[in-house]
Specification:
Blueprint (H helix, E strand, L loop, with lengths): L1 H24 L1 H10 L4 H22 L5 H24 L19 H18 L10 H39 L13 E3 L5 E3 H4 L6 E5 L5 H16 L3 E6 L3 H11 L4 E3 L4 H5 L7 E5 L10 E2 L1 H12 L2 H14 L1
Parallel strand pairs: 3-4, 4-5
Antiparallel strand pairs: 1-2, 3-6, 6-7
Helix pairs in contact: 1-3, 1-5, 2-3, 3-4, 4-5, 5-6, 8-12, 11-12
Length: 330
């Protein structure tokens, strides 16, 4: 049993050391994840600095037997807090940027991340109540109980998401059956500077009479980089105005504009425009009709954004070509 607990402690220490180290190396991405998970903007930077330090402290505490329980308790708290927040967002149909392992995990997390965290929480519970320095509890029973409880909670959340998906599908079918004259919601107005400092608004983007594809991204989003080569091509090949709404300094954004031939990048100060459009993660796209109305809900991830553009402006072959181009750029 002592050998098993030692291996569990070392595994947990390695996971938290990797998580904390990669977050320290990707402070901007960690701050982005804090904002996506609902942390207020004024607390996002301090939280992004404190979280990796806490994870590294947990990793260090898990190694010596004398501090193993303290480390296990800290690991369990962090895992349960993150798992609860992630389950809440997923249950409400949102996919916040996780950055759990910095740039190594740029894709939005899903239900497998919940299962992974529940397993890690069970291992932390095993260490917390295991036979360290003479204190013995049946850790296997506790861990099994936690796994069963976590599995039940995971299954309940999964069922809830499936119910929401079915209701959404039914609602979309009902909306599709309505007459074409059904009023669409108007897109929220905004005014943002481009990389040259010129302030543009939504009316300026729609002045050409073409629809506008608003793509919410940021310079530290790996999934966004996979989509960027397609954006310039769509702007050239379709009657479509593509505008990337990003954050951060103009320099990193200008480098991506030059590299991928992006026609237009607008810079928001924080998340004011993303929040107005209910864009909970990146990359996220919203299509706006020339009359200023929205074409459906925000769409997340490179594949779904490509599908949106393909369904409105081109064939699936055009999307496939874009995927091959993206892979070549990478």
């Amino acid at each position: 049993m002592d050998t098993v607990l030692l291996l569990v402690r070392l595994l947990l220490a390695a996971v938290f050391a990797l998580s904390g180290g990669t977050k320290l190396a990707d402070h901007a991405g960690t701050r982005e994840a804090m904002l996506d998970f609902g942390v207020p903007a004024r607390f996002a930077a301090p939280a992004a600095a404190a979280l990796p330090v806490a994870e590294l402290a947990v990793a260090v505490a898990l190694v010596p037997p004398a501090s193993a329980r303290i480390g296990a308790f800290g690991a369990l708290v962090l895992l349960l807090v993150f798992t609860s927040l992630l389950a809440y967002h997923l249950a409400h149909g949102r996919a916040p940027a996780c950055r759990c392992f910095g740039r190594l995990s740029a894709e939005p997390p899903g239900w497998p991340a919940l299962a992974r965290n529940l397993v890690l929480a069970a291992l932390a519970t095993t260490v917390l109540f295991g036979p360290v320095t003479g204190f013995t509890v049946d850790a296997r029973t506790v861990a099994l109980g936690l796994l069963l409880a976590g599995g039940a909670a995971f299954f309940a959340l999964w069922q809830r998401q499936e119910q929401l998906r079915r209701r959404l599908a039914e609602l979309e079918c009902k909306l599709a059956e309505r007459p074409a004259a059904t009023t669409r919601p108007r897109a929220p107005a905004f005014r943002l500077p481009n990389l040259a400092g010129t302030v543009l608004d939504l009316e300026a983007l729609l002045a050409s009479g073409n629809p506008a594809l608003l793509v919410f991204a940021n310079p530290d989003c790996g999934a966004c980089d996979a989509l960027l080569p397609d954006l310039g091509r769509w702007h050239r090949e379709h009657r479509l105005t593509v505008a990337v709404i990003s954050r951060g300094a103009a320099g990193p954004n200008r480098a991506r504009a030059d590299r991928y031939g992006l026609p237009l990048i607008l810079l928001q100060r924080d998340r004011e425009v993303a929040d107005a459009y209910r864009a909970a993660g990146t990359p996220c796209a919203v299509l706006v009709h020339p009359d200023g109305t929205l074409d459906g809900r925000p769409v997340y991830g490179p594949e779904r954004i490509r599908t949106l553009v393909s369904s409105r402006f081109g064939s699936s072959a055009a999307v496939a070509d874009g995927r091959r181009g993206s892979a070549a750029d990478r």
